[in-house]
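Friendly challenge for the regulars: who can give me the structure tokens for this chain first? No prize, just bragging rights.
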Amino acid sequence: MASSSTLHLLLALLTLSILSSNRLVKCDSEEDNLLQGINGYRTSLNLTALTKNDKAECLAEEIADQFKNQPCTNTTGADTVPGTEPQFSNYPTLLANCHLNVSITRDGAIMPACVPNLVPTLVLSNFTQSQYSGNLNDSKYTGIGISSEKDWMVVILTTNTPEGSYSAVQSASLILKSSFIYQLLFLLVGLVLLL
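First reply, four minutes later:
Bragging rights claimed.
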């Protein structure tokens, strides 16, 4: 029979393996509200709802971080005069930080908007009633990543094509398999300790 301390260790290892496979849930109420609003808008146009894309969200976070200290002007956000959009010299680094490259992001759309205090109704209208509405009305877009920093909200739209999928080099099934193997290893270590 196993000792009490060994059983506690096994229970701790099992709990750790379960917790390590679950991501911490981040409360993104501003982003979630915008996603619901955009999907409601698309539904009203008989378009499919956009699904969350983690890699696009990562890039949206990187870009929002670049904008956070910029004031709202007519050369930033949804009020941008075409041709005056900011260019980031470190864009390849921003992509690399999210394990992305230009070849799988080419067909996506990056849409920053600056709204003081990120008032939800104004944020939504900055996307649905601006130059960005053309992208939101386009059925080629199937995924979305959203992030905010200070007065900035960045939305990235993705496609289901290889040139706009924002998919990582590793497939989701490979990641799931490696997570499962990781949990099995924890359990095996626990069993060895019991014996």
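Helices lie at 4-21, 29-44, 54-67, 91-97, 120-128, 133-136, 172-194. The chain has one domain: 28-170. Your move, everyone else.
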